[in-house]
Write a structure and sequence with these properties.
There is one protein chain. This protein is mainly β. Strands 4, 5, 7, 8 and 9 form a five-stranded antiparallel sheet that branches. Strands 10-34-33-32-31 form a five-stranded antiparallel sheet, with no helix packed on it. Strands 11, 12, 13, 35 and 36 form a five-stranded antiparallel sheet that branches. It starts with 30 loop residues before the first strand and ends in a 7-residue tail after the last strand.
Length: 469
Amino acid sequence: MIHDPMKPPGSRTRALLPAPFPAPAIASLLMLSCTHTATETGDSSGSEPIVTTSLEAELTLSEIVPTVVTIEWNVDGAESAYVEYGLDDQYGSVRHVSPDGSDRMSTMILGLKPSREYHFRAVNEYSDGPVYGEDHSLTTGATPSDLTSTTVQTFDESQLEDGFFITATMPGGPVILDHDGDFVWWYTGQGSTGCNRAYMDPDGDSIWFNQTKEAEEGFASVVHMSMDGTKLEVINTPGAHLDFVLLPDHTIAYQSYDPKDIEGTEIMGEKIMETSPDGTTTEVWSFWDHFELEPGTLEDGNNEIHANCLDYNVEDDTYTIGYFWLSTIMKIDRSTGEPLWVMGGDLGEMELTAGDRSFINQHQFYETETGLVVFDNGPQEESLSRAVHYTMDLDSDEYAEDWAYSAGLFVPVLGSVDPLPNGNILISWGFSGQMDEISPDLELLWQLNTDLGNTMGYAQYLSSLYPEE
């Protein structure tokens, strides 16, 4: 479902992407036909034979995202259906679909590499066996010139977690990569600049990403776009910057600037805003409702606390938010707005009991069973950024450094950590343009590097590009 743009009273709305978006021309249209001839006697139950049918499949290669293929075909009477596809006529990959009672079925094929010839075949399954369409092929489009090239080193393939990575490149926009370092999905069109975070919709047919380049001027948005680029909605999120989260019901939560005059000095605070699927926007939390600051107390003389990361935990209905210039992370009860714990910096209510120091100017984090993994950017004088796991004892208000991993890089901008199902950890080194996959034993398994001058946004692991798999 594509939501209506948010238009609160008095807000300034500017479409950062054209809406409606012009539908792409059909880049490749192929016909696949096959005749299903039923047995004369039917099955042993005496049921009537299935009527002869033709698949008549049509393939469309998107011109906006030219690694996305949409295939539509007849499924008259089929009990199930699927598409076989791959780099040759042996295929190797399958996209299953469930007929919904209509005469024709349509599905998108995702995860294809750029500039490759792919083979496709539609298949219907009946009680007396499958019916195969003819083999046809098409070639996917090339990556655009404004996307960086990548270099990949694999150190232990046997320990890698199979799947994809969704992130953003700067310059560039939202992207999806595979373990070969190939971009299998991208959008670098109008409005993609300033993207730090992207999510694939749980339904698998669309992607959400933010556009925050002009947040301080009030122009920011979350863009909801179909995977083939043919449908698009721009949702205005005034003052939003750096991060947002997509809740299970498709509510968008984002951090927004919230200035306050303190003794003649404007201090830029933060608030958490939610925009629901019907377009209603609600303030659910404000920093100023729970904390006070004096001018000159922020690091390096800054006058903003700079919230840079926002997470949502569906199990306990909480937000966790990090503040760059406070070097603080806190967990907030979504229903009451009360801080449940505050960790790090001068506002921290927990004591560090092990480790040389707490995190400083941190970015992305995630919760574990025993604590928190944090991307610790670190102070400039140390010139070393880390991924750090802290164990937490909420009864005693203590936290302790458990382990730390560094690639020998100092990352002043961005940086993220994300857990993989097999226990591995994906680390995006932000400003350095590098991503690592490490084992639970902190062994480097895989590394991706981009061209000099490219930055990687917050990165997340995707086990599949199809939600039902």
